[in-house]
Design goal:
Length: 208
Amino acid sequence: MPVTMLPWKDIFDSIVAIVKFIKEGYSNTTETRKNYFNNHIEPAYVKIELVHKDYLTTLSMLVKMKKKEQKSNEEVIEWLKERKIEFQTERIRLQKLQSELFNNDYFNKTFKKDTEISKWTVQYLEDIFKYFKQSNYLQDMTWYSYLIQVIESSVALQNSHPESGPAGLHANASSADIFKHIDTTIGVITSQFDFISESYSRLRGLCL
């Protein structure tokens, strides 16, 4: 089952702590590097990993719901929207933080070019921000919002041809579209999480 309370606030607080640490500057000593990794980089990764696993569980449950017809299409859409509301506020805060950070003069002119640790910290933050926004499509929306849109469109197609029945041509086509998009979505977010893991591993090697 998906986690009932995802650590969105904790993720936001961890990233804020990284940004604050960047803005205040840091001395490049071994002890400071260890503290930096243990107190800032590691906690953010652990929490994002939890969210990623929850996303995969949610998508797997969605496939099972559709295949076993445990819920109607409308119920599936409502279920997804309810889960979206749970983390929407914190995700908006993340987007604002991203904008503030990447428009910061010190961040752009000094920190990004300072050391290997700072360069990989930048990459780490960029990968995190991209994970929650990632989409293979041109629409200005997250992958989660686009998933809901695909299902709604498929349901609308099916409803526009009621004569085909629940197992008719249009119903089968809409279900195939949904399954295909879920599979694509799993691939997209897994790939982006791999980028986060790569940045995390690089920082671990540099800091510890």
